[in-house]
Structure formats: structure tokens, C-alpha cells
Structure prediction request, 308 residues.
Amino acid sequence: MPKAISPRHLELDEIIADLRELEAADPEAEYAIQENIAFFEAQRSVVKFAWWLVGRRRRLDVSRMLELSDFALPKWQSKLYEELARASRPEFPGLVRPLVDELIQLIEMHSGNQGGGIYLASIGCGPMEIERQLFERCRVLGIEQNLWIFGIDSSAMAFDCAAKNLASSGIDLCRQTDLRRRPKVPGVYFVQIDAEHFAHSWDGGNFSLLYHSRLLHHVPKGQRSELESHLRRICDSYIEYDDYQTAASLIGPIITAWRQPVLLNGAVISWTRDRGKVQLRSDYGDSVQFFNPPGAYLRVNSRTDPED
Ligand SMILES: C[S@@+](CC[C@H](N)C(=O)[O-])C[C@H]1O[C@@H](n2cnc3c(N)ncnc32)[C@H](O)[C@@H]1O
Prediction:
């Protein structure tokens, strides 16, 4: 009797077939598509993957590399959001914990100082697991009625995933299309728009806190500082959160996400595009803090701080 094909191998077949189809339609992304096909082919066995890690991974041209979720493949974007939300929930390794802790501290400071509304913007919000955890903690503190949270994401698939994720904590997600004013009612809102376009179009007053988590490696290197300048103009405090390169932040996901090819792709390919501690210190000086686990850094700047 022929051996049954595992769901993981079926998923790998499906991803590779979709990438091959895309290759014909999108010649500009040829390099990144071919490297992704090689990545998923390598996942067919532990030995092939180890070979990819020590060989092909080291030769990647990271400036031309993209993750599976960067391609126009809605099915795999949704899959990544579901898996990312699930992986971000547990206390260990606490993928988003340092950011949520920092945001809670700043929110408490703002609610003490102003007593009025607190306006948050999450750029590249994806499945909004950060905001779900944040809202739950604000509920415990009794300050959710003063909170406006805006999730901004360019992906059309993010809204449904975020709405489902937030609904698991009884939080409604509303679509916001008017960028000229803030909604009157506190709550969680979603704007489907590119970050740069949002920074230029938003005319609804300054955000108390504006942050992005695991967004930067999706933005081409040459455009990052310009994006930051534009975003800093529309907020009082600006927070950057992302992973940095450590051996543990590469090996950890390989072990925990081996059965989830899409999540593993996001973790490993973004790792190749991340900066190391030394580079981050040289880029940001003392304003950067490191957290291990989960192998992430955090940088907070207020409106009056000079740009790095
Ligand atoms: C890896 S996910 C991170 C999701 C979430 N912030 C978190 O940390 O769990 C990156 C998200 O950024 C979004 N994104 C990438 N480039 C963007 C851009 N230029 N403008 C807005 N969103 C963007 C993607 O659609 C995706 O949802």
C-alpha cells in the first residue's frame, strides 16, 4: 500500500505549486521566489533543511529576499497571521511580551497625566495579537474606556484574521476609512493602507503612542528612515520593536515551528534580514533595549528626541 502523505508535506506541495505559478506572473520577484522554493523544498526533510541552513542560507542576497507572506498569495498570508497570533499568545517565549509591557507602562503614564483619551496606532498590525493582549490588560486596569487603538496594515487579509483573533476576547474590530478625523467612540479600529501612505494621509490629530512590531524587515532598507521620519510627525512617542539576530532566535523557531512551514518561513527568512546587537547599538546607541527570550529589541523615542 502506498505511504500516506502527511498534511505538512501536502502543504509544502501546495506552497511550491503556488510559488511556481507566481514565478511566471511576476518576473521581477524571480530571485526571491526561487529562493523561497528552495527553502520549502529543503523543509521536506531534516537533513535537506540542515544542508540549506549551512549552505544556501549563507549565500542569500538579503536585499532581494522576500518572505512568503510578502507575495500576493492571500491564502498563505492568512495562514501566517493565524499561526503568528497563536505563537504570540503563550507567556514563553513571550514573542510580544516586552512590547505589551512597555505599552502598558506608557498608557498608565498617559492616563495619569492627561486623564483624557489615549490614541494608539499599530503600524503593520497583522492579526492584532499585541492589541488583544493590550486591551485585556487595560480592561483589568479599568482604562479601556479611554482607549482608541488603530491597526494599520496594507494586507487585505489582515482584517478578517484580526477580527477573529480579537473576537476571541470579546473585542469588536471596526473598519475606519475616514483619515481626516478620529472616531468619537473608543475602541479598536482597522485601516487597510500602506504605512507610508497612512503617514501622509492621516489628519486626525497626533497619536499618543505609535508603534510597529516586526514590520521593519518588510520595508526596503533605503526607505526605513524616511518612513520613520514621517511616522514620528504624527505621534508623541514612537516605538520600534523587532527581532535581532541571535543563534537562539534562529534555532528556537526551527524547533517549535518545524511542523508549520509558513510560520517557519516567516521566522527564518526574517531572521536573515534582521540586524544583530552590534549593528543595532551602532544605529541607535543607548535608546535600544534587548530582551532574550524572545530575542527582540525595543526602542522608544518621544517627540522631542532627536532622530538617530
Ligand atoms: C510579521 S507581520 C507582524 C504583525 C504584528 N505587528 C506582530 O508583530 O505580530 C508584518 C505585518 O506588516 C504588514 N506590512 C508590511 N509592509 C507594510 C507596509 N508597507 N505598510 C503597512 N503594513 C505593512 C504585513 O502585511 C504584516 O501584516
In short: The chain has two domains: 7-66, 94-259+290-302. Residues 7-25 form the longest helix (19 residues).
